[in-house]
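step 4 of 6: structure.
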Amino acid sequence: MFSVRVWGDRGSMPTPGPDTVLFGGNTACLEVRCDDRLVVIDSGSGIRKLGDKVMREDLPKGPLSIDMLVTHTHWDHILGFPMFTPIFVPGTKLRIRGPISYEDDSLEKVFGSLLSYRYWPVRQEELGAKIEYQQIKETTLDLGDGIFVTTKYLNHPILCLGYRIEYKGKSFVTAYDNEPFYNLFPTDPSDPSYDAEAAREGEAAARDENEKLLRFCQGADLLIHDAQYTAKEYQASKRGWGHSSYEYAINVAHKTRAKRLILFHHDPNRSDAELQELELFYQGKVEGRSAVDLEMAREGKTWQLGG
Ligand SMILES: [Zn+2]
Ligand SMILES: [Zn+2]
């Protein structure tokens, strides 16, 4: 069995309420099952209910052993961690991997700071679980039991990793929080800081990184891609915020021949009605153009990648 379930798909901030019932209001958390192994991606607010399920269904079978992959440490991707009940259970083994940071603080310190009396009544030292931290770069990890994880740097205001999980000949890729790489140097010759060589190099570097990302996503059976904005919103005012447009995500899925695309990291201001309308619009747009199936991420939805 190789499956992926969404426990949180909202970007930036949890958004409970009557307008977010269908697609969900919890922030990023994915449950990946590779037969008996559990891999959790991100610990946004959605992880609380995943923790309840793990307590109900996995704990009775024996001590818990969980791998957690952290895309990055922005608030919406870690805020649920203190309410992930398995961390309080003695005997739980939790391996947390996430990107190294340019800042001085280690991954352990970042997670530990969530569990300080200033924010929470329980400290990291008081947890029942044994937690190991590993800071990673672009690499391939062997998690054992035939599970391989490849990572890729994405374009986001802090170091952020995409994850590609391969198991039993199938592949699942995450590419959020991410926006297309672009030239960071002025390209207009009338700009006083214009430098022709820098502009050329900037263009080449952006193209190179975007091509690397396409190779990373190539042929995924399931691709969960950032899609917080419409192309119009992105171009009007959101460039540099670290998120993609629906159009860009769809383009990536087409170019890489992804079998199924899940549009993820919904804008906190987007209601169910708006997301439904956008989903129908973009599904219509790709009809007849390629075999890619696309849909908006929905809390509670599971995809089976292999039996
Ligand atoms: Zn985010
Ligand atoms: Zn972020």
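step 5 of 6: annotate
 - The chain has a mean pLDDT of 94.
 - The helical segments are 47-58, 75-78, 107-114, 196-217, 231-238, 246-256, 272-286.
step 6 of 6: archive
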